[in-house]
Amino acid sequence: MSGEAAITAANAFQDAFNALNSSGMADACNFPHVRLAKGAFTRFETREDFLKTHASMKERLKAEGWDHTTMESIKVVHEGPDKVHLAIENSRRHADGTVYKPFNTFWIITLQDGHWGIQFRSSYLT
Description:
Layout: H1 2-18, H2 22-27, E1 29-37, E2 40-44, H3 47-53, H4 57-63, E3 68-79, E4 83-93, E5 99-112, E6 115-123
Parallel strand pairs: 1-6
Antiparallel strand pairs: 1-2, 3-4, 4-5, 5-6
């Protein structure tokens, strides 16, 4: 059951990301939220911290020719009553659907106050 809840949270994040909806992305997270990418940790203490740093996301994505990201696979690696580990394969795509940036990522989804949300993301996105 917790694996299904974690996958639901991951899909909600992905849907919000594709809609460039930072608020929706934050809704799919638990805080503090940590991201490990390009060898550096970023910690978002609050929802507001998360929203501030994602303001420039649209420009960065447009600059690389991004149109949407697809989740090629999602697998529950470990599952407990209040924490789930997910292994995900994502692909960033251009408007014509061609993949230009495939990458693996590992997410930890936690249960906080009745809310399943992503609390940690580690990706090999370059």
